[in-house]
Write a structure and sequence with these properties.
Mean pLDDT: 79
Helix content: 40-55%
Largest sheet: 5 strands, antiparallel
Oligomer: single chain
Number of strands: 5
Length: 155
């Protein structure tokens, strides 16, 4: 009977010790495998998201669309080949000013909401547009300021 109790106690210790021994030996490997699986899963998810964004950008990037280039320039697309990204896109910056840019230099397609905000013209407190003076008016103003400085005594 004493032999049966010792055997049962040894079996309980072996089974609980077996789990602890297993995790002490293989716990780090299991943790690393789980980490690698998570990294693989998250990178696949991120790549799929980037691919959908690129496809949406390619659908919006058509001739006539206004775009923002990587250098901060705004322009209108003249030609763009979404299938061959190595072929340069031609962007019109101003009337008659066409440039070739790498097709990946197109940062984003500008939507009307990204442009200048719509100003309500019914507001009476809006400041008036500044007056642009001609070269003659500028010369007269500077001469008048120069004469005023000569007439005033210095303290």
């Amino acid at each position: 009977m004493i032999f049966a109790q010792t055997t049962a106690a040894a079996a309980d210790t072996a089974s609980s010790g077996g789990i602890a021994t297993f995790f002490s030996q293989y716990g780090l490997i299991i943790l690393l495998v789980l980490l690698l699986v998570f990294m693989f899963w998250s990178s696949r998810r991120r790549m799929a998201k980037q691919k959908t964004e690129q496809e949406a950008k390619a659908r919006q990037t058509v001739p006539g669309a206004e775009v923002l280039l990587q250098g901060g320039l705004y322009g209108t697309i003249i030609s763009y080949d979404p299938d061959n990204l190595d072929q340069p896109a031609i962007v019109e910056l101003a009337p008659g000013v066409d440039i070739k840019v790498h097709s990946q230099a197109i940062l984003r397609v500008v939507t009307p909401t990204d442009e200048a905000p719509v100003v309500d013209e019914s507001i009476d407190d809006a400041p008036a547009a500044p007056q642009i003076e001609t070269a003659e008016e500028t010369a007269d103003r500077l001469n008048a300021e120069k004469n005023d400085k000569k007439d005033t005594p210095e303290a």
